[in-house]
Amino acid sequence: MSAAAPRTAAGLRPDVPRSATSWWRPTAAIVLALALALAASGPARAAAADCDRPAAVCERAVAAALPLVDGGVPATVYADESDFPAVLRAARDLRADLSAVAGREAGFSTAADATGRTAIIVGTLGHSPRVDRIVRERGIDTAALTGRWEAYLIQVVDAPEPGIERALLIAGADRRGAIFGIYELSRRIGVSPWTWWADVPPPRAANLHIAPGRFIDAPGVKYRGIFINDEDPALGGWIRETYGSANHRFYERVFQLILRHKANYLWPAMWLPRAFYDDDPRNAELADEMGVVIATTHHEPMMRAHAEWEKYGEGPWDYARNRERLQGFWRGGIERLAGREAVVTLGMRGDGDEAMTEGTAIELLERIVADQRAIIAEVTGRPAAETPQVWALYKEVQDYFDQGMRVPEDVTLLFADDNWGNIRRLPEPGAARPGGYGVYYHFDYVGGPRNYKWLNTVQVERAWEQMRLAWAHGVERMWIVNVGDIKPMELPISAFLDQAWDPDAADLAWITGYPAAWAAEQFGDAHARDIGEILTRYTQYNARRKPELLAPETWSLLHDGEAGRVIAEWDTLEARTLALAKRLPASHRDAYFQLVEYPVLASANLNRMYVAAARNRLYAAQGRASANHWADEAQRLFERDAELQRIYEREIAGGKWIHMMSQPRIGYTHWQQPERNVMPPLVQVDVPTRGVTGVAVEGDARPWPQRAASPRLAPLDPVGAPAREVVVFNGGAEPVGFTARTSETWLQVSPAEAEVDDAQALELAVDWARLPEGEHEAVLAIRGSDRTEVYVQVPVRKPPAHRGARGFVEGDGVVAIEAAHHARAVAPAGAEWQAIPNLGRTLSGMTLWPATGSALTPGGDGAHLAYPLVMDAAGEVEVRVVLSPTLDFRNRGGLRYAVSVDDEPPQLVNVRLDPTPGDRDFRAWEHAVIDSVHVASSRHHVAPGANTLKLWAVDPGLVFQRIEVVADPRPRGTLGPVESRRR
Fold first, then answer.
1. pLDDT single digits (tens) 730-759
2. Fewest Cβ atoms nearer than 10 Å: which of 156, 659, 770, 827?
């Protein structure tokens, strides 16, 4: 189906807005903010305003509503014994879900004769005689389901059969259609897909009613699934402890999770020695019985796991030298399918997820694919095109495709991201292909520039933005995401699969409200907004530098007050998280700790530990006695990390999640993880007994008086830097006193004298009213009781007032602006500038949507964002544009934007990032994924006072986060300066 065409045109959900699927009971304010977010996300019980919508589930009854739970008594679930085993299993799950919600056992029956006032009847069209009879005798229109992959209908039916007055009918076009209709009802009555995997308790209700009418739905993306990967030590250790091996008992839980999200597709765990088919023959049988499509990963062709070649293969993994043995190996993979549903991976990569030898790789791969398809046709007895196949354009295989390698048109082309959430290539919009297109995306990765496996670092807004881009370019056949250990990726897994179900409904309003909607599904409405905000801030903070990439030098102690600001943000978030934990009922304690509390506390603790280690190193180098305190503090925080892990694994849910947080995250020295957490090197100093006066100043790591030259501050100014940090510290054990005096009456210092045990910050205050415009100089004299003397040079700049000029005002040599804070947004007809909240490191991202058109010409009335500036003086400036690290997904030599100031011609800037090692743009890509942004720059001339900067859209797909106009290019912190004042 076309990405541009609304799916309601074909009869799906003809009268039903998606918000009818909402379940929780929000306040009016939340309803307004989240109505669209709830639409496609699947949460169940409807808001009061939605209770009249067809098939909405509410505790209060609307006219002609059908009771699902009546006075604590749940309705009986009926199915046909002749239906698919997968449907019968889902029907029994519905019975269990109703029982959990009602607090009383619900009935289940496959008997031909039914009795009771109300019932829930489920089944597959053409495979359930009961459902077929009701459809025929009651004249139910199922035309919208005919031939539609995984479509289902939910409808209240009067007198469906003798003995039943009214029933809820759930009819599927195929077996998964019926399954998804069943699990849709489970979500609507309040049962989260994470009820087992995150210990989310179903909300109890004495009465639940479903509104009359009909609800028809079907997926947008055909194959929607997850890839369990990089599963040791965390998930792998938990599997061994809980199940012994990755057997069918483990996979039963995985299959339930997938199906409850209305997904259908799995790449099983494959780290050595795991092999889905070989580990337990029951694995594949159960997948088929439950209705899950199994495939093998991007580097495991022909339904054979990599571990199986390790076990059974003979000779090298080299088709040029070992063709016959490899063909036999692959033939065995197709033979054991035995007619089960699958998607077969084609092609071949080097042994162990590595590249093949270069040179003849393309010619050899084309021969391999042809031979593999011949095996498929021979074993199945049907043309190869009748067996779903996929060719994964992952890493170097993408390069082969770019160089002209092709596979038959019936094969799905699976494009990939760069392992860091940035899609590498997409088809041209409207480029039809019988096999369709897919995307392989990552929430977890093992590889350069560094592994990231421990916690969720995915901003759902960025994943949504990239997958929306894919959908708009016609990627409708397959969405598969690497989820690592499954936990703790709960939030992004839900968002990814919910978006895949209905990409058209997953618009900007949907993703804006998704965290709160998801929180409501897990914890109820009362605290949904607060929990959603905590999840949003936590993922934003962790995404700007992934935990594995943190180091003592990450957050600057010298510039922009950055380390202090970062820790203050984490402190605030942690306090908010702990306060909310006290307000939740005890029944939600386990789920809250897993989904919210542990990720926040552990991340805050890790950032504090690295900043403590940074203070220890800096203070030791400066000769501060407090260096030893910070070494002790870093060690305490290192031990606190282990304690938080212990609580997660051994206390929460009765120790159910043993090993699950065992992924090492501290002590990385290169891309690969350490074997265990390793404390960053710390420094212990010998502290003399006698007090020793020292001075440190902002922006300089050097101490005084050990250095010969006098310290000099960066200039103070009234807008961006009204104060600078000067610290008097003690290098000894005994207290030391000091006095501080300034050379000018317009500069005051406080305190003017004090006794110092550890350190004392001095506050400088300029009387700006007494100071004329221009450059000024003062001296701060500090004298210690140990006869130490330090003279700090204090330059002060009072810029012209530029009265009447409006805009973002230069301060501290820079103008920093969040891209969303534009004064004017100009878009071409049929497009709009959209602000995507929480996309990026600081506030949001601005993008021109839709992003499927041709390149635009900057200038004139072209698409642009305008920002008014107030600059101190005329001169040349550097305009740094901070962008999300979007790749050249159209393969046209980069993605361009343009910048102009006032009447100058727009200056084109080309963003070139390439994850291919050895490419000229590889280092730029590495820096971009480490920093989660790419900073591009251009140089421009500004006038004193008012200026207008315009940011021009040229190539589609770029996301702009912020702009920094730099007049003074001194060092800054990792995140850049705070946003400038606007007048």
1. 999 999 999 999 999 999 999 999 999 999
2. 770
